[in-house]
Amino acid sequence: MTRDVRGLRRALLHLTLVTIAALYLSPLAYMLSTSFKTRREAGVAEPRWIPAPATLDAYREILTGTDSPIARWFVNSLAAATGHAALVLVTAAPAAYALARLRFRGRNTIFATVVATLFVPPVVLLVPTFLIVNELSWVDDLPAVIVPAAAGAFGVFFLRQFFVTLPRELEEAAELDGCNRWQIFTTIALPLARPALVTLFLLSFLTNWNDFLWPLYVLFSPESLTLPAGLGNLQGANSIRYDLLMAGAVIAGLPVIVLYLVAQRWVIQGVSRSGLKG
Questions:
Q1: Where are the domains of the chain?
Q2: Disulfide-capable partner of 212 in 82, 175, 228, 246 (CB 3.0 to 4.6 Å)?
Q3: Contacts with 73 (C-beta within 8 Å, 6 or more apart), sequence order
Q4: What pTM was estimated for this model as a whole?
Q5: Residue among 221, 220, 170, 160 nearest 193 (CA)
Q6: Which residues contact 249 (CB under 8 A, 6 or more apart)?
Q7: What angle (nearest 5°) sits at the alpha carbon of residue 197, between those of residues 25 and 76?
Q8: If the chain, 278 residues long, is cut into consecutive pieces of 10 residues, what is the mean pLDDT of each piece?
């Protein structure tokens, strides 16, 4: 293959990637642009990419308004997503390591059962989960959106795929030095699994942050709502205030984008290594 042909193929590949990126980023760009428009300009039928004039009125109104305590919703979502993601790591990491490294009767059956639960539609579990949460008196409180999904099957499956790729020689050397299984897990397996742990934390954080249906079931008072549920109420109350809706969407999406930019190196490593070996 000549150099010109390789250059043409590379140029076409880059053009395709740029086109795909533009398709994905254009809604986000228009959302950001609309959030800086006036109420009148945001409601016009003809789309305008550049606000004229640009204003922060939508952000001022949505952050200081008494009808929509978005700052409180933001704090609730941040606390719920962070607590949920941390709890996922606490529950998934030991289970995944046991299924990857310990040899006991029924291990494969247990792992197959865990994976099979991934095929159960989450909506099927809404009513029984609500009954349990209600018995625990967690309704209209943040534990209701933090705890129930923290012991999910995906985290166990994801980390197990990573743990099986770790070299056994490191664990055997630690056993010769007198380490027990828990010490091997905490001092060797977990530090080596940092990319997978960061990836799972980010995915769990994102899932909880974007959850809309479950908070509507268990959170009722305006002070207890998370951002997706709160923005849903905002949309119902201000169905034509596109400037407010887009400003709220920008505030909701900003933490996730920042978190991914900070952790993208570990995310790439975690995703690539977790699929090497089954």
A1: 70-274
A2: 228
A3: 225, 226, 227, 229, 230, 231
A4: 0.81
A5: 160
A6: 31, 35, 231
A7: 65
A8: 74 90 87 84 76 83 75 90 94 92 87 89 89 92 91 89 85 82 88 87 90 89 86 64 83 83 68 48
